[in-house]
Design goal:
- This protein is an alpha/beta fold and 389 residues long.
- The chain folds into 3 domains: 133 residues, Response regulator (Rossmann fold, 3-Layer(aba) Sandwich), CATH 3.40.50.2300; 165 residues, P-loop containing nucleotide triphosphate hydrolases (Rossmann fold, 3-Layer(aba) Sandwich), CATH 3.40.50; 73 residues, Orthogonal Bundle (Helicase, Ruva Protein, domain 3).
- The chain has 16 helices and 16 strands.
- The strands form 5 sheets. It has a 5-stranded parallel β-sheet, with helices on both faces. Strands 7-10-13-6-14 form a 5-stranded parallel β-sheet. A two-stranded antiparallel sheet has the order 8-9.
- α2 runs parallel beside α3 and α15 packs across α16.
């Protein structure tokens, strides 16, 4: 359901617009002036904004200018009872999606809202595609600390081979990035890297997901389907969260690794596969073996090479480089210039206890980028990174 913000100091206008928009099944919120509008946009996301020009505290034109910085992708429809051609032209020049005179023609208003929402959806789709294109242009492991340099040297030696690699490390530390780095530097880079999150697939479906199934083999199997092993043939199969795979599925994966063959569920035909397997886990698999939750023979098949990815607290020297990287990436996605961080702000980030590792740092940098002015200070870090202190 699209969410629309109505900004007008006249209660009857807000009530009329709310009634007609809610009748059209939109989620509606209200603000009485530009300042309240800015405050609401800082806390929430809106798909479109309908805003009056003449208002107390902050008029619509000034609010529009701020919105172009705060949320440039949100279409703003300006309305005014003092509408002139010059006013309309000024509003559109400053970034308004459209201009409607008061009292608004409700049919035209609805059409304009629909057009604005379509534009908003198109912008969002474009941003997603841009992210996908950027992420497909290669991966890079950011950092020059001693632990990261050791990993890079190891990966440079391991990647060109077909050896299986077990990647260990805490959640959010970059294990998936390591797997992609290995694939892109391998002789299989022209093939696909197929990822399987073993923790996200129910145990009763994991066999079908990995090895495929034959039409009619179970309820819902309406067509033959190749599994991930087949899809990755000629490339790389990345088994993420391998420590969460059931013992039954582990036995079948072990057989596939031993024989380089798979059999689809409901079929007897063996299919030859040529796959390099990379696996990752945040668990101590040796302890899992002792507890009877992981097969020792599968562990030794997977752990030809073991890459231990350190948590961010173990590589604090890399935080300035990582912050700069995320700052530039977020700026590109939002279509603005990167923010400036004071040296004290960077030091404060280095002193934080990063329990969520790289993933947490990326989220924090995006939060600071959105909520702070052009220069991010130590006070900003204390306010937005340590909210409970």
């Amino acid at each position: 359901m699209a969410k629309i913000l109505i900004v007008d100091d006249e209660t009857p206008i807000r009530r009329t617009l709310r009634d007609i928009l809610e009748f059209e099944q939109y989620d509606v919120d209200e603000a009485t002036d530009g300042l309240e509008c800015i405050s609401k946009v800082q806390r929430d996301k809106f798909d479109a904004i309908i805003m009056d020009i003449k208002m107390p505290k902050m008029d619509g034109i000034e609010a529009l200018e701020r919105l172009q910085i705060l949320s440039p992708e949100t279409p703003v429809i300006m309305v005014s009872g003092h509408g002139t051609i010059d006013t309309a032209v000024e509003a559109v020049k400053k970034g308004a999606f459209d201009f409607i005179s008061k009292p608004p023609d409700l049919n035209r208003m609805l059409i304009t809202v629909r057009n604005a929402l379509e534009r908003s959806e198109l912008v969002n789709t474009t941003q997603v595609l841009r992210k996908q294109v950027k992420s497909s242009k290669g991966v890079n492991i950011i950092g020059e600390s001693a632990p990261i340099l050791r990993i890079k040297r190891l990966l440079d030696r391991v990647a060109p081979t077909d050896s299986r690699v077990l990647i260990t490390g805490p959640n959010g530390s970059g294990k998936e990035l390591v797997a992609r780095w290995i694939h892109e530097k391998s002789n299989r880079a022209d093939g696909s890297i197929v990822e399987v999150n073993c923790a996200a697939i129910p145990s009763e479906l994991i066999e079908s997901e990995l090895f495929g199934h034959k039409k009619g083999s179970f309820t819902g199997a309406i067509a033959d389907k190749p599994g991930k092993f087949e899809q990755a043939s000629g490339g790389t199969l990345f088994l993420d969260e391998i420590g969460d795979m059931s013992l039954d599925a582990q036995a079948k994966v072990l057989r596939a690794l031993q024989e380089s063959k798979v059999t689809r569920v409901g079929d007897s035909k063996e299919i030859k596969v040529d796959v390099r397997v990379l696996a990752a886990t945040n668990k101590d698999l040796r302890r899992e073996i002792e507890a009877g939750r992981f097969r020792e023979d599968l562990y030794h098949r997977l752990a030809v090479i073991v890459v231990e990815v350190p948590g961010l607290n173990e590589r604090r020297d890399d935080i300035p480089l990582l912050v700069e990287h995320f700052n530039r990436r977020i700026a590109e996605e939002y279509g603005h210039a990167p923010k400036t961080l004071t040296p004290e702000a960077v030091v404060a980030l280095q002193q934080h206890n990063w329990t969520g590792n790289i993933r947490e740092l990326a989220n924090v940098v995006e939060r600071l980028y959105i909520l702070c002015d052009n220069t991010i200070t130590e006070d900003d870090v204390q306010l937005y990174v340590y909210p409970n202190k």
